Structure formats: structure tokens, C-alpha cells
Amino acid sequence: MRAVLQRVVQASVEVNGQQISRIKQGLCVLIGLSVDDTSADLDYMVRKLLSVRVFDSNQGPSPSAPVTGAVPAEESPARMWAKSVVDIGGEILCVSQFTLYGQVIKGSKPDFHLSMKSDTSKRMYHDFLERLKKAYTADKIKDGEFGAMMLVNIANDGPVTLELDSRKFEYVPVTNQSSPAVAKAMKQEKASQPKVSNASPKKQKEDKGKQASQGSNGEAAPGVEALSDLSKMNLNAPGESPSS
Q1: Is 51 helix (H, G, I), strand (E, B) or coil?
Q2: Residue 103: which residues within 8 A CB-CB, separation 6 or more?
Q3: How is 189-233 classified by DSSP, letter by letter?
Q4: Rounded to a whole number, what is the distance in angstroms from the first to the last CA of the chain?
């Protein structure tokens, strides 16, 4: 299950020119369901949406009015990423979005075979909304119209946008056969990476010396073979016995 979360000052959905949903400060969330999503994925996304901290410490309901005559306390600088949508009492607008599972690995036409089929996804999407309402406040949860052509108006505050995934973007392919295009891309990427030697510095130095002493065809460089032969000869002065 995937979600694109956006922090907004307001958001709305229109269908056929008519506004059907609208929220003020809160989150606008595009929701996508995959072919193998379960209730565990729904529960994960509910918890994450309600707990992720994307609002500043000074956002949310205004503090109660100070007592008359009291000296106002100095305001501390606002801290970023300090509050969740629950902390500020914000609203959430959910919009079904099957295109979150679109792939363009081969060709230019998007492939949506990882998206859950319409009938099943509609039931699961509404199940997700009910879980979200029970975990938060029902009247603060709004949504668009499932399966309709919608015009989504988003006033992104920041902008702040996060991608959430119940499987952490690690999905097992539907079939055991991986895509040829993906396999080819991975092979090319691996071939382009420099080889890292695990040999010790001493071994690397010896290998470098061997490479320097060899020509391009792997034969000994000129003079190297002759030096090797000389090292085997008796270089003692005339009349001296060979050393043992």
C-alpha cells in the first residue's frame, strides 16, 4: 500500500464541476493499493498517517488567552517536524489513486498490473477509511469519489510531501520471472562499477609490480627475462669458488 502525503493549508475535490469534499489545515493523502495488500497494510498506513510529524511546533490550535495582567512569556522559535495531524487537530482528505503503482520500465505507456483490481480495491479502500475514522475523529476524515475523474486542488504548505509504503518499496514480483529490462539494467550497472580489490596493501603492491613488468600481451617486458637469467648465473670473480 502506498500513500503520497502532502501538508496543506487547504485542499478540495471536484467531480463534474461540483465540489464534493474540502478540508482546511491538515493532510491531503493520495492512496494506492497493490494486488497483494492485506489488512496488515491498512493498519500500518493508518498508524503512520496519524503519527508522522510534518507540522511545526507553533502550528495547530491557538493557546488559551493569557490571564489579564499576566506578563506574556517569550515565544521560543518554532521547531520543525514537531507535531502530527492529530496533535494540531487537523483534517485529512484521502483520494484513491491507483496510478501510484504505474510502471514505465519498458516503453512509454504506463503499466498498472501491480494495482489492485477495481472491485477489490474499492472494498479495501473504504475499509481503510473506516479504520482511519475509528483511530482518529470521523468528521475530520474526508475523501473523494472512488473511480471517478476528479479535480484535486491542493494548497501544499512548504511544500512538504512524503512517500509512504507499507512494504518499504520492497515488493516481491507477482511472477517468478523478473522483467528482462530490469535484469539488463542491473547487469549494465554492475559492469560499470569499478572493481574493488580485497587484497592486502602488500599483495596489491606485488600485483602492481608484476603488471609493470609485463607487456600488453602478458609477456615479460624487454630486459626482464635477461635479468632473470643473469640472477641464475655464477657472478663470482675468476678463481673464487661458488658460494654455498
Answers
A1: helix
A2: 110, 111, 112, 113, 114
A3: HHHHSPP---S-HHHHHHHHHHHHTB-TTSSBPTTHHHHHHHHHS
A4: 80
Other Cβ atoms less than 10 A from the Cβ of 58: the count is 15
Proportion of the chain in helix, strand, coil states, percent, rounded to 5: 30, 25, 45
pTM of the model as a whole: 0.65
Return the bridge partners of 27, or none: 7, 92
Pull the grid cell for residue 39. Answer: 489488512
- Which residues are paired to 142 by β-bridges? 93
Three-class secondary structure of residue 172 per DSSP: coil
Position of cell 479535480?
A: 151
Take residue 202 and report the three cell numbers written for it.
Answer: 602488500
Q: What is the pLDDT along the chain (244 residues), one digit of tens a residue?
A: 999 999 999 999 999 999 999 999 999 999 999 999 999 999 999 999 999 999 999 987 755 555 556 555 566 788 999 999 999 999 999 999 999 999 888 889 999 999 999 889 999 999 999 999 999 999 999 999 999 999 999 999 999 999 999 987 555 555 555 556 666 666 766 776 666 555 566 666 666 666 655 554 545 445 445 444 544 445 444 455 544 4
Q: Which secondary structure element, helix H or strand E, spans residue 31, and what is its range?
A: strand 26-32
